[in-house]
């Protein structure tokens, strides 16, 4: 398995635009779903509660998908330097988490998360524990998830690949629409 990952990380892919878009869609979906699973397990293990902590109805949290896309776009060029990837992943996701938390509070006057009281928190929107976890997620994304997605995408017709990815995004857009109408009205 480790040898396979090493080989995948050495490969350079030259995708057409449609496949690149499909890859970004899948990374967004994987990141959003992984964020939901992470938070679900965190609340289950720490608070012993089943919690849907996301903004939407479905099992995904788009800020994690957005973070995954930002990390991929900004950090992939540093792939030969894992420590740099880790530290920049912490920075990129910390800034995203802070901006998102502050924006959601201004818009809804509600906090979807609050790190007040945790070590090195900034206004309760970001803390060391969260960005450290996101740094680990950045390493997983750059060195495991993205290479696997790239390898998978080479096996499929780019238009069909994009269509499948688009279906996932369409479901999330429908969920967002229903959320804004019924659950979290502006």
Strand-helix topology:
Layout: H1 2-10, H2 17-47, H3 62-75, H4 82-108, H5 128-153, H6 158-183
Helix pairs in contact: 2-3, 2-5, 2-6, 3-4, 3-5, 4-5
Mean pLDDT metric: 92
In angstroms, what separates the terminal alpha carbons?
47 Å
What structural class should be given to the helix and strand makeup? mainly alpha
Main β-sheet: number of strands, strand sense, barrel status? none
What is the string of helix and strand elements? HHHHHH
Radius of gyration: 17 Å
What is the overall number of helices? 6
Summarize the structure.
The chain is an all-alpha fold and 186 residues long. The chain is built from six helices and no strands.
Question: What brief labels describe this structure?
Answer:
186 residues; mainly alpha; single chain
Report what the structure shows.
There is one protein chain. With 186 residues, the protein is mainly alpha-helical. It has one domain (43-175). 72% of the residues lie in helices and 0% in strands. It is built from six helices and no strands. Helix 2 (17-47) packs across helix 6 (158-183). The longest helix has 31 residues, at 17-47. The chain is globular. The N and C termini lie far apart (47 Å).
